[in-house]
Amino acid sequence: MSYSDSDYSSSGAGDYKNFRQITRERLLYEMLRSAKTKDSKSTWKVLIMDKVTVKIMSYSCKMADITSEGVSLVEDIYRRRQPLPSMDAIYFIQPTKENVVMFLTDMAGRTPLYKKAFVYFSSPISRELVAHVKKDSTVLPRIGALSEMNLEYFAIDSQGFITDNGKALEDIFGDEENTRKGDACLNMMASRIATVFASLREFPFVRYRAAKSLDQTTMTTFRDLIPTKLAAGIWNCLMKYKSIPNFPQRETCELLILDRSIDQIAPIIHEWTYDAMCHDLLNMEGNKYVHEVPSKIGGPPEKKEVLLEEHDPIWLELRHAHIADASERLHDKMTNFVSKNKAAQLQHGSRDAAELSTRELQKMIQALPQYTEQFDKLSLHVEIAGKINRIIRDQGLRELGQLEQDLVFGDAGMKDVIKFFATNEEVSRENKLRLLMIVAVIYPEKFDGEKGLNLMKLAKLTPDDMDAVNNMRLLAPPAGGKKISTSAFSSLKFDINKKKRPFRKDRSGEQETWQLSRFYPIIEELVEKLSKGELSKDDYPCMNDPSPTFHSTFQSAPIHEAPAAHSMRSRRTPTWARPRGSDDGYSSDSVLRHASSDFKKMGKRIFVFIVGGATRSELRVCHKLMGKLNREVILGSSSLDDPPQFITKLKQLTTHELSLDDLQI
């Protein structure tokens, strides 16, 4: 195994680096920089990857980073490549038989494609494949390194990763008879999650949502066992990693394994932050936003692609801010920029050029390129925020968003939903569908028989739309010791005669700083309880079977809690935007102020993994909790889904589900 000397574990005494930094540094320094021999004359290398490892690399490193480490060419292992016998090659590949065969074909015989090969596998390689490599006597002398990087995850954020199992929802939450697909998906997921801990050199306490229907009278479904199976798979992988040099032998962090059933509302409710609104309303492809810019040659406007990512300081500051707050802050930034920037003043004609001294003119000319770049970035975000606000106004999303949150917290009921459908015919079909899906989670009995058809007609939805509504039951948490029925949306016990039904409690001690920010994902509550040592061991058992000191160990760890947020919430008179200067802990700059300035004081890392897709609201909560708990909270999932993607996946789930009545036991 190949590990650098720096200590990455959150329990170590070395410099604390965040999740994405460690991933990037391992790829650039441990792999690319170390791939060289003393007698190597060539300073340039070829990097060869497969379709998975190229995605791993692209999420963590830019092309400029790779080039600066001496890589002049990046190649696909499955494409025909030009022989470069004077250059060394770095293979970053999965340890599959096909990849190993391709590598041996490249380097075998009298005329290999490259001078030396430095081979790094993304996950553990089997003994059989290692033996296969050793068999070829012509290849062995040409191998400069043969190592397991154990890095097969996709770092989508400084505090987030995915395993890229985009079909997990379909494979795992679909027809429970097809357990072969589900098991294969979970095994791949477990292997990739384990490489996160190998990379960070962390050994976790593995906690997971317990199966709810484990008794003699109730059938345990495959879906109910998802977290249990995944926890077992990860544990098996971790046991193999314990033989790696410098891998910790005692627990250094916490991992909580959940699935989509713990929070069915988070993927479909409207999230009002800048980041979430961009991805929900603007039809973006990943993080790519396409906008029009004036032509430099005087023709029609040209289309330009930009990436909304962490390298953009404005995006980094505003992504977790409420859209109304982000809009106000952008307006202030633009006003201040134009008033203070000399080049901007000249551009906007605030001062006559004749009044300026030569030195002032010189300073303005020097500032112009920088001015243009800064002005373009600000203008881009002003344009995006403006477009989002127009969509919110045109689609009537404020009223819809208020109804969504009132339903969740029990301040509205079915009468309000029916009234909304009857009086807001201009609302888009997709938004009506999302509202009905929320209703289906809270009031499942309203979709039995003719009732469901009547609601479909009232909302003017199609049978295809109703597939998404009906398939919400497949994501429902098990009903404890009760028979699993098609209407088991929620394990919570409610009086069905009650007109209004609170599905979630208001957060005690937390106040709204702006309208429509009341909703919170369930993982916020779970992570806080985990951090305090208050998470139920019955509902969330531990694979490690720790000693009684387990909870006290983590409770006694220094938490360094941040000061309580100052807010101006009023439930009766909520404001559209928060007061300036308030610090709610949500925005990236707030998190940085609270936590990132001194990583050495950070507590042990917390990892949360959600099977079936995570949401941007859940990723935002992890950023918020990092500042609040002073612990790096890392969110992992099979995928990161925006509402349109989630609904499409939900429609593809099979609607057939076995019940105990069907089995006639």
Description:
The structure is a single chain. The protein has 665 residues and is of the alpha/beta class. Helix content is 42%, strand content 11%. It has helices at residues 19-33, 51-60, 63-68, 97-107, 127-135, 168-173, 179-200, 226-241, 274-281, 313-318, 323-340, 342-347, 358-394, 397-408, 414-423, 429-442, 450-459, 463-470, 522-532, 549-555, 588-596, 616-629, 643-651, 660-663, and strands at residues 45-49, 71-76, 88-93, 117-121, 143-148, 154-157, 160-162, 204-208, 253-259, 288-293, 302-307, 603-611, 631-637. The strands form three sheets. Strands 6-7-13-12-9-8 form a six-stranded mixed sheet, with helices on both faces. A five-stranded parallel sheet has the order 2-1-3-4-5. Strands 10-11 form a two-stranded antiparallel ribbon. Helix 9 (274-281) crosses helix 13 (358-394). The chain is globular, with a radius of gyration of 27 Å. It starts with 18 loop residues before the first helix and ends with a helix.
Task: Describe the secondary-structure layout.
Elements: H1 19-33, E1 45-49, H2 51-60, H3 63-68, E2 71-76, E3 88-93, H4 97-107, E4 117-121, H5 127-135, E5 143-148, E6 154-157, E7 160-162, H6 168-173, H7 179-200, E8 204-208, H8 226-241, E9 253-259, H9 274-281, E10 288-293, E11 302-307, H10 313-318, H11 323-340, H12 342-347, H13 358-394, H14 397-408, H15 414-423, H16 429-442, H17 450-459, H18 463-470, H19 522-532, H20 549-555, H21 588-596, E12 603-611, H22 616-629, E13 631-637, H23 643-651, H24 660-663
Helix pairs in contact: 7-8, 9-13, 11-13, 14-16, 16-18, 18-23, 19-22, 21-22
